[in-house]
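Long-time lurker. I teach an intro course on protein structure, and each term I like to show students one example going from raw sequence to a predicted 3D structure in C-alpha cell notation. This year I'd like something fresh instead of my usual example. Would anyone be willing to generate the C-alpha cells for the chain below so I can use it in lecture? Attribution to the forum is fine with me.
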Amino acid sequence: MTFISKLAELVILPSILLVLLGIIGILLIRKSPETGRSMVLGSLLGLLVCGLLPVGETMVRPLENRFERPDSDMLATMHGAILLGGVVQGSIMKDRNVLALNGAAERLVEFDRLALRDPNLPLVISGGSGSLWDQQAEAPLIRDWLTSVGVPKHRILVESTSRNTWENAHASLSMLNEHLDLNVPRSLLIVTSAAHMPRAIGSFRQAASDLGYEQLEFFAWPVDYRSTPVTVLRIQRLGDGLSNLDQAFREWLALTAYFLFGRTAEWLPGPYGTAPTQS
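-- Reply from a regular --
Happy to contribute to a lecture. Here you go:
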C-alpha cells in the first residue's frame, strides 16, 4: 500500500501530468495534427500559468494558515515534542558523513531550538525511510546530529520504522507510551512543515483514539512556510511555482485520501481539538 501511494505521488503531480500531456500531443501530431497541437499548446500554457503565477501558493496558503504556534506560557506546559521526518537526505549523509538537508530543513532547526529552550522536554524523532529509492532511516541520523550539537542522547527517543504520516503517529505514540504514561492528560507538540500540519495533527488525533489514549491533546509547531499574501500579478520563477503547485496538490490529495480511508476524522483538521472519540 505504501509503495503504491508513493509511486502514485510521483505520477499524478500536476507538473508531471502537464509534461505528459505535451509529450502525448507531440506523438499524436502526425496522426491527428489538430488534437496533437492542441495538447502541446495546453501543456505549454498550463506550465507557464501554473509556474509563473502564484497558483500553488494560493492552494497551499490555507493549509499553512490552519494552525498557529502556542504562546510561551502554553509551550511550557508541553509533555513532549515530536519531530516528523522528511528533512534529511539519508543516502547522502551516509555516503559523505555530512549533514545533508532538503527543503524542509527548518523542521530540524526549530526542533533543535525547542530542545535547547527547555532542557527537560522529552524529544521524539519519528521517521524511517519515506522514499521509494532510499531505504536509509532518517531518525537515527537526526538523533546523531542533535547529539553532536549538544542535545543529550538520553533525552531523545527514536522511532525509525514509519514510512508515512499515519505510521509516524501510531509508532510514535506507541513508543512514547513506554516511557511516558499517555493514559492521563498530556500535551504533545508536533513539529512539521506548516502545509503538512493539518494532516499530521489529524493523524495523531486518530492514532490516539485508535490506541485508547483519549486524554491526549496535540499542539502544532509549524515551520517551513512557502506562501506569502497572494497577488495575482506577481511573477515568480517557473520552477518555484511548479514546485509549490505540486506540494499543494500532493497535500490536498493526501488529506482527502486520509479522510476517506479513516486515517483522520476530519477532511481538514483544525485547532482546538483532542483525539476524536471512538464510536
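Some talking points for your students: DSSP finds eleven helices and five strands in the chain. Confidence is low (pLDDT under 50) at residues 273-279.
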